[in-house]
Design goal:
The protein has helices at residues 2-7, 12-17, 23-31, 45-63, 65-78, 82-96, 106-119, 126-138, 140-143, 147-160, 171-176, 178-203. By secondary structure, the protein is mainly α. It has one domain (2-203). α3 packs across α4. The longest helix is centred in the last third of the chain and has 26 residues, at 178-203. The radius of gyration is 16 Å and the shape is globular. Residues 1-9 and 208-213 have low confidence and may be disordered.
């Protein structure tokens, strides 16, 4: 279970997107899994807000009945790693259907975010600094859009579990139930966009962007 907690949520693209247009919220939301407990007090306010937003989104996701349907479909084979796999699969569907959610091309959007991280490198937690070069090299966020990219990510995650999770085989279930997973993602994501917008209204100053779109 400790390893599962270490892996954290892998739906990076969704968390970034759901932060809206405020750059500091994006950074905080992205690094949140590498900031434990209340060890975020030294960050600037809006980055702290992004960490808080991330945790609210995770709670919403974990409790959502549609997400649980996706997770339960994988549970007999992958056990507690099913939630991590669903995070990755949902990011795949967000990347694949990106034009439905953003007017900015996915490649441009991801490059802009990578530039944002590099410009704020010194403030990133050590764990993020360590994996960032690999993220940039393999363009994780952009390559979520392809089955090949998802397969590579699942393979890398399986290696991090020393092959105990068997996550590298999860593309089999993805292909078998592709339409079902995609429809579940669509239902869930429309709801979490609204939820995130409402949460941002609560934590940012009046007048800030509160939309979950770009």
């Amino acid at each position: 279970m400790l390893l599962i907690k270490y892996l954290g949520g892998m739906n990076y693209l969704a968390h970034i997107y759901l932060s809206g247009e405020v750059e500091e919220l994006k950074i905080g939301n992205f690094i949140a899994d590498s900031v434990k407990g209340n060890k975020f007090q030294h960050f600037p306010k809006k980055i702290k807000d992004g960490i808080i937003l991330h945790r609210a989104l995770d709670t919403f996701t974990d409790k959502h009945p549609t997400v649980r349907k996706s997770t339960h479909r994988l549970f007999p084979t992958y056990g507690h790693y099913s939630a991590v796999i669903v995070d990755i699969l949902y990011d795949h569907f967000l990347a694949k259907n990106w034009e439905d959610y953003s007017e900015i091309p996915l490649f441009d959007y991801t490059q802009n975010f990578y530039n944002l991280l590099q410009d704020n490198y010194e403030i990133l937690p050590l764990r993020v600094q360590q994996f960032l070069p690999y993220m940039l090299k393999d363009n994780w966020l952009y390559n979520y859009a392809t089955l090949e990219g998802i397969g590579k990510i699942l393979f890398q995650m399986d290696q991090r579990t020393k092959n105990r999770s068997k996550m590298k085989f999860a593309t089999k279930e993805l292909k078998l139930h592709y339409s079902l997973f995609e429809s579940e993602f669509t239902v869930f994501f429309n709801e979490i966009i609204h939820y995130s917008s409402e949460e941002i209204k609560k934590i940012v100053n009046p007048g800030e962007s509160t939309r979950g779109t770009n």
